[in-house]
């Protein structure tokens, strides 16, 4: 394996700066890796679209600027020239955006998402777009209209979802950095089951403009990487106020990389870490619980004060989420009607009115899970049910916020397993929506409350990665990076290197790569 | 189902037996520079689908941002309607599918309007005042424009439709009244006067272009009847898109006559939308209200709440122009018009025009004479709005000074005005070009008078006998001979002079 | 809450503009019933005194100045349209023809 692809983004950036590696070499190395492991029947299939030409052009531009030196080279962003993969829920000019749906097959956005504008401005070559559950609805990426993504740790298992493509790409060394979106855990749960790092920033910390909305009050874009420090660097790049997003926080991004560096000393003296009583025990795999308990011991040994906190209303979090999210989904996805864009489908028979054409178009364009959520959301908002369902769920949201407030009065950060289970076999939960929904039980409360969360690798159970989640109060994302980096350092000291190094070598799956 | 041809009851008879209840939903398009939730230009009539951003097309991934000016205009409307302004309010999504609605939901306000609990006193042409209570005024966005293509050009029987989203997202304020009771036979007049008042208010506030013919102000009129002596509101119908003041009056009248006929026959009114047809001045059945109207409102998660402070509201209140009622009192006193005269001027919509004309130097009497007289007559003949004739205060000042200088007489002046309206130029130019100056040359005039006197010796005899008013018979032939350019007063003087009679 | 019937789901599908076959309606009715059963306890979780939270963070008054920005060209606006004519999006008839 080419050593370039094993570098963290921070280390690769350092080599780009000192001239020992060029951006063109870095991009090419990752394109080669993608060609080797992503395609074919047993490929990872993290990518839906490759953007090789543009990525190489951006790399060449960065290399030229570096070669010329002077103020322009000085002004380059620290991550300039480091390649990145983009979840295909985020719109990009010049590359198709599908949201993992047949409906948008071939759709070309005439505008860039705000995070894409920032990535272009910082000159990070975009390798391509990664697979996801259709419109980000799922926990396994099996609901993509474009086929499953495989978990690099075990190709017969799910990579998590919805952002399985971004997590798998990073885990398989196809990209050092990726963007994800997290509505109920779609960054953190894939991070957990692929042994990578993923962060859901404070709601409003990263602009949502250009992320195809699933549930507007829950969605957040965030970094997907192999190290905590890389997530901090990417978070600093994509974060900050955006006047195009009314829910964007009008404050500069905090010093996140500095917090990660502080954490990487492995010292947590004076930090109070709250263990959420309701997010462990029953329903959590024994192996997951064991790794979690070991992590607590390590944190304690690093000087952290471990306290137990109780969040009694988390009992209702999943239920509230499965009312609020589908309600917003039913409205957000109404625009996909085949009038302005999308693949129009005519009804097989009967009158050819616009209403019926919309009905046939949406029926053909959406998969089962999307339809389920649209119907559920339509039900929850409909006359006579609103108060009992949507209205009640919004009240539960208040209760969950209060639970967090009380917990953060006792602790600086909270900790829990990220996912109750390790990666499960492809196809094993597809016919049981409820079982699938339970994967997000530990990640959902943060989305409901708008607070930030990070997942870091916590070891293996059944030879599969386990994720440890930290949560912090809104606007206190820096605390996540400190705690996350500390645990990462403590665990890596034990393992003798990153967990990802324990992943099995991927066989070359295809000479052709992805289509 | 609706009747193919509607049975009607005579209006007066209908209101002998029933009391009407009215209600209005008036949509006002604001004249901000940009749209409600995007920074696209708020302008239509341009090349289709060019005044759009990704937001206005509802492209995947877009988010709305509220136009501050549109919120301020909405608050100003609320203040002018004597409303309370919400201290806290949110936007809400109204979910329904329609191809002119890019997101398939309209961003509107539901149970938290920006303004509520207002009132307006509406004065009818004879001075009777009705107190109309305003339930709410809320912010929302307009839809795109659908053009139905097919032989009829209407939605019925169209082969397909074309959509232009230039208008999509234009800021709207919807003003909703509480049920208006007790208007009786004056209901149609009140309807017209109410909509006229809203139009004047938003124009006076300069928050809307307020042109009904362009759809800046659109009215949905609700009508129901209840048998006299009862107090429970009847089933109402909502007549959509009644887009001129005359149409509002006619639509309300028509619905009263139709409802009465349905109720008289023992049938029930179907709660439904009615469509107004200007050509036949009738309404036809639209869509019945059904559970398909389950709009599934919920708070718009992509927009944050609006919180108004006292300081902000007072700052906006300070920017409000003089209230119309106060302005009217002041103008009537300044101009010295009698109550009836002033009311006629107001009803004709000439307040601004007359104010400008007077400001340009005309006397109040002269200004009123022209606007209420000749200009109104020309407009009526041409079937256009008087203000659209192209007559400016300067035209009137110029015409009047020509009369005062005795260059032309009243009759010629009226002709000159017609030529101005026809686009021939300014009055002075027209008088010159068409040689319309009054004939003051006494020799030419004298010859014409001599001819007339010679032709009518009996008239001359009567004048000599002291019946001076007989001169009128001579003026006609003299005018004819001079093609109307003689000054009648001068003719009279010369005749008396020639006959040696005291006037 | 009463159990969800097939007719209920058919109505929801109509509101949501999702054409569904009889088999799909049948399947969806079953699945929706199971999901709603599992999550309906939400209605008992919070009392009347608990306010609803619609937005995760308490931001207010986010507004922009009334200044015209960049618009799309007509070509960009129509570039993804399934059907277009005369610079406008073309859609099938809205009402059923005879």
Features:
heterotrimer; B: alpha+beta; Arc Repressor Mutant, subunit A; ten-stranded mixed sheet; three-stranded antiparallel sheet; 16 helices; C: 98 residues; mainly alpha; Histone, subunit A; two-stranded antiparallel ribbon; 3 strands; flat
Please provide a written account of the structure.
The complex is a heterotrimer of chains A (about 525), B (about 500) and C (about 100). Chain A has helices spanning about 10-20, 25-35, 50-70, 70-75, 115-120, 165-170, 190-195, 230-240, 255-265, 285-300, 315-330, 355-365, 370-380, 385-410, 435, 445-450, 475-495; strands spanning about 45-50, 85, 125-130, 175-180, 195-200, 220-225, 270-275, 305-310, 415, 455-460, 465-470. Chain A has about 525 residues and is of the alpha/beta class. Chain A has two domains: about 15-245 and about 255-315 and about 400-500, Amidase signature (AS) domain (Amidase signature (AS) enzymes, Alpha-Beta Complex), CATH 3.90.1300; about 315-390, no CATH class. Chain A has an eleven-stranded mixed sheet with strand order 1-3-2-4-6-5-10-11-9-7-8, with helices on both faces. In chain A, helix 5 (about 115-120) links the parallel strand 2 (about 85) and strand 3 (about 125-130). Chain A is globular, with a radius of gyration of 22 Å. Chain B is an alpha+beta fold and about 500 residues long. In chain B, strands 1, 3, 7, 8, 11, 12, 13, 14, 15 and 16 form a ten-stranded mixed sheet that branches. In chain B, strands 6-5-17 form a three-stranded antiparallel sheet, with no helix packed on it. In chain B, helix 10 (about 395-405) runs antiparallel to helix 11 (about 410-420). Chain C is mostly helical and about 100 residues long. Chain C has a domain at about 1-40: Glu-tRNAGln amidotransferase C subunit, N-terminal domain (Histone, subunit A, Orthogonal Bundle). Chain C has four helices and three strands; from the N terminus they run αααβαββ. Chain C has helices at about 5-15, 20-40, 40-45, 75-80, and strands at about 65, 85, 90. A two-stranded antiparallel sheet of chain C has the order 2-3. In chain C, a hairpin with a 2-residue loop joins strand 2 and strand 3 (about 90). The model of chain C has no long low-confidence stretch (mean pLDDT about 90). The chains are: A alpha/beta (about 525), B alpha+beta (about 500), C mainly alpha (about 100). Chains in contact: A-B, A-C, B-C. The interface between A and C is large, with 74 and 54 residues. Strand 10 (about 160-165) of chain B pairs antiparallel with strand 3 (about 90) of chain C, so a sheet runs across the interface.
